[in-house]
Amino acid sequence: MKRVLTAVILIPVVLLLLFKAPDWLYSAVLGVIAILAVHEYFGIARHYQERLYQNVVLAATGLYFAGHCLHKVSAFGWPEFGNSVESWLVQGTGYQVLPLLLLLLGLTLGDLKQALPAAAISCLGFLYIGITLGELSLTGHTRYGRILIFVFLITVWSGDIFAYYAGRAFGRHKLAPGISPGKTWEGAIASAMGAVIICVALFHYIHAIVNGLVALDSFPSRSVFYADAGIDSPPLWLAAIFGLCVNIAAQLGDLTESALKRGAGVKDSGTLLPGHGGILDRIDAMLLAAPVLWFFQFALYRAIIHK
Q1: pTM of this prediction?
Q2: How far is residue 60's CA from residue 102's CA, in Å, rounded to a whole number?
Q3: DSSP of the chain, one letter per residue?
Q4: Is residue 57 within 8 Å of residue 126, measured between CB atoms?
């Protein structure tokens, strides 16, 4: 019951954030989610390596998303970073500075055998959570990016639902018994098929969805980016491939976090969400699926937009 109530509360909040929040607020909320998830990640990681640099990575994650909050879209609606404060925050914290800083901090350890594991495991927390959620953040700053994220989220969630009910009804063959004993091949196949069907259906009706949202004034302040172009459904094959790739990545993301928790000997990443565990438990599928959206968005954009 707690699981259902939590979902009933969270889903409307996510949709309001997606379609009503300005870019800075959208990225700020994702930044808070990232910081909470990174904190939970270190709770798991400490079972593997005692000496870690949690505070440094948390600070880097905060600065990274602060850069997103300050970011302005270009005249074409795509993310652009020049020689500016947001450029330093986004590129400097994660890509140039953080890995080297963590290696330098290893020089202070008494046992130098811990220097590399401490730096590597700590840096992975930023790459695993900060960068992937950052891709969703920047995609949301682009023209029609929120619509693509909406399709992405529904595809991920629907795959999870299909896997759960099909696995319970028909599951016989274990998918990864050493990682997640409850998952079955039957559930995984149903998840992929269901996600592809839902994704194709959403893209087929994307014109109606966008028109409905525009009529309800549900887009953020950058309405000019929606008014100057029409929108079409992408080819069936592109929508199907996108849905399949998102689903496969999402299922692997779920298994990845399960493997980390099983190796650490913990059941959940946290207790923040009643009935769901921690933040990381809820977004694990999206973390590996987000790069799929990031790479597909350009092909999808070209396919759905027409002047």
Answers
A1: 0.89
A2: 11
A3: -HHHHHHHHHHHHHHHHHHHS-HHHHHHHHHHHHHHHHHHHHHHHTTT-S---HHHHHHHHHHHHHHHHH--B-TTSSB---SSHHHIIIIIIIIIIHHHHHHHHGGG-SSGGGHHHHHHHHHHHIIIIIIHHHHHHHHTTSTTHHHHHHHHHHHHHHHHHHHHHHHHHH--SEEETTTEEEEEHHHHHHHHHHHHHHHHHHHHTHHHHHHHHHHTT-S-S-THHHHS-EE-PPPHHHHHHHHHHHHHHHHHHHHHHHHHHHHHT-S-S-SSBTTTB-HHHHHHHHHHHHHHHHHHHHHHHHHHEE-
A4: yes
- CA quadruple 198, 203, 208, 211: dihedral sign: positive
Instruction: Please name which of 303, 304, 289 lies closest in space to residue 245, comparing C-alpha atoms.
Output: 289
Of 59, 227, 249, nearest to 135 (Cα)? Answer: 249
Residue 84, φ and ψ in degrees, nearest 5? -145, 175
Do residues 133 and 287 make contact, with C-beta atoms less than 8 angstroms apart?
yes
pLDDT in tens, 213-260: 776 665 554 443 444 456 778 899 999 999 999 999 999 999 999 999
Q: How far apart are CA 84 and CA 80, in angstroms?
A: 11
Residue 174's φ and ψ, nearest 5 degrees, are -70, 135
Distance in angstroms (rounded) separating the CA atoms of residues 171 and 159: 15
Distance of CA 70 to the CA centre of its chain: 20
Half-sphere exposure of 148 (CA within 13 A, CB side): 33
Task: Give the pLDDT confidence of 119-131 residue by residue, as tens digits.
Answer: 999 999 999 999 9
Domain boundaries, the chain: 2-306
The three-state secondary structure class of 174 is strand
